[in-house]
Amino acid sequence: MRRLEGRIATALDRAYQSLQATARSRSQLYDQMEYLAELARGLEQRAPAPISEDNPAGLWRLRLEPIGVLALVELEFQQGGLNRALVAVGTYRSSNGSRGTLRGSFANGRMALEAIDSRRGKVADLSGVVGIDGRLEGTWRAVASGLDSPPAAGGTFAGHRVASESEVSLD
């Protein structure tokens, strides 16, 4: 009986030590969670206001590289299409004197647009994403004799949302 009581005491001691180790580990985990939450709050305070990934409608100033063309793009989105995609429609005018309409789609943070010049028809395809920093970035590809300015037939674009046309210069 004494041997059995000794074994029980040893088992209880080990269980108590294990319970203390678990409590220490849990406390360290809570400390780390609080630290991560504090870091996240700091990042949120420094981050620019995010652009809605659900609907990036509005006025955008884009720069197409390597040709250096600036464009003022106004986008609107309507619910429709497959997979709950938004149907995009819009207009653009650029520093090279062209102007026209845009059409395409936006789904899962990705945008695909066709640029249709008012005189020449379809001139380019654009594909991009709205980044967490509120920028619209992607690639463009000239179609036929549209935006391409020899030797470039495509490249990248980047832009940001603007409040009004008055704050944008295409020079």
Mind explaining what this structure looks like?
The chain is of the alpha+beta class and 171 residues long. The protein has two domains: 1-47; 58-165, Beta Barrel (Lipocalin), CATH 2.40.128. The chain is built from one helix and eight strands; from the N terminus they run αββββββββ. An eight-stranded antiparallel barrel has the order 1-2-3-4-5-6-7-8. β2 (69-79) and β3 (86-94) form a beta hairpin. The longest helix is centred in the N-terminal third of the chain and has 45 residues, at 2-46. The model is unreliable at 48-52 (pLDDT under 50).
Low-confidence residue ranges: 48-52
Task: Report how far the terminal alpha carbons are from each other.
Answer: 96 Å
DSSP helix count?
A: 1
Number of domains: 2
Descriptors for this entry?
171 residues, alpha+beta, rod-shaped, 8 strands
Structure, briefly:
With 171 residues, this protein is an alpha+beta fold. Helices cover 26% and strands 42% of the residues.
